Amino acid sequence: MNNLLLTIADVSKIATDDYVGFTFFVGCMAMMAASAFFFLSMNSFDRKWKTSILVSGLITFIAAVHYWYMRDYWASNMESPTFFRYVDWVLTVPLMCVEFYLILKVAGAKKSMMWKLIFLSVVMLVTGYFGEAVYTTGNGPAIWGLFSGLAYFAIAYMIWFGEAKKLAEQAGGAVLKAHKTLCWFVLVGWAIYPLGYMAGTEGWYSFVADLGLNMDVIYNIGDAVNKIGFGLVVYGAAVASQATSKA
Ligand SMILES: *C/C=C(C)/C=C/C=C(C)/C=C/C1=C(C)CCCC1(C)C
Q1: What is the pLDDT of residue 92?
Q2: Are 80 and 86 in contact (CB under 8 A)?
Q3: Could you give the CA distance from residue 119 to residue 87 in angstroms, rounded to a whole number?
Q4: Which of 62, 88, 113, 232 is the most buried (most CB within 10 A)?
Q5: What's the CA gap between 241 and 234, in Å, rounded?
Q6: Rounded Cα distance, 3 and 104, in Å
Q7: What is the number of structural domains in the chain?
Q8: pLDDT tens digit string along 17-38?
Q9: DSSP 3-state assignment of 122?
Q10: Which residue segment(s) compose the domain that 38 sits in?
């Protein structure tokens, strides 16, 4: 009990003008609230959709736990929590790839497509980590960022024009609509991250940092938009498809 009280009392101070700390705090709460929403609504869907909603909840829940640590890390060190950030991403981004597979399963999506997407997402994140945390001098960040960007484009290509696109068209209806929206999330929502990377690392693109943008604020906005947004798109598809199948 004493330990518990100590832990509660041991909250780091957050300055009133610490807007980075603020976005970590709000991000944490938003991820928790979204998780509660997805987990609690899960059982009102039939089996076909239940797993998708569960994965939506797992994505925001894993993020909530990492945000809990990142918020603390930022408050005590005033430093980017790069390690926690990438551990979070390397768990949640592959789960977003699983989400693509799950909604396309009705049209006969194969596991091989899911594994390709997962592989590309891990390449994108590991190379990004190298540029942001390991090879941080000279051309390091620019070169590793380029590799990461190539993997990102491969993912976007696969879902916009490749295998995944064909399956979505076969499925039609709510699935096709959800797939299209998720494709936009990947193209526009995910593009927020390279912007944050350019704001936080050194390279030919340092003009981005000169705009006064903060890497963590950009990443935090990206996470809220993409993780909660993705989940809500899947939720909407589940509602729509259940409404038509009952009518
Ligand atoms: C929930 C977390 C998500 C959706 C994270 C997505 C992260 C990316 C799309 C990161 C992409 C990057 C590049 C395309 C180049 C520079 C390095 C990264 C890792 C920031």
Answers
A1: 98
A2: no
A3: 16
A4: 88
A5: 10
A6: 48
A7: 1
A8: 899 999 999 999 999 999 999 9
A9: helix
A10: 2-246
Report how far residue 209's alpha carbon sits from residue 43's, in angstroms, rounded to the nearest whole number. Answer: 45
pLDDT digits (tens, 9 = 90+) for 87-97: 999 999 999 99
Distance separating alpha carbons of residues 86 and 133, to the nearest angstrom: 10
Token couple for 165? 């696109």
**Structure tokens, 102:** 């799950």
Residue from 95, 127, 132, 193 whose mutation best tests the ligand 1 pocket (most atoms within 8 A of CB): 193
224 lines ligand 1 (CB under 6 A): no
The DSSP-derived string for 17-57 is T-HHHHHHHHHHHHHHHHHHHHHHHGGGS-HHHHHHHHHHH
Q: How far is the CA of 196 from the centre of ligand 1 (A)?
A: 9
Answer for the pair 53, 42: CB distance below 8 angstroms, yes or no.
Answer: yes
> Could you give the CA distance from residue 43 to residue 49 in angstroms, rounded to a whole number?
10
pLDDT in tens, 50-60: 999 999 999 99
pTM as predicted? 0.92
191 CA from centroid of ligand 1 (Å):
8
Of the candidates 168, 172, 42, 157, which has an alpha carbon nearest to the alpha carbon of residue 101? Answer: 168
DSSP letter at 239 equals H
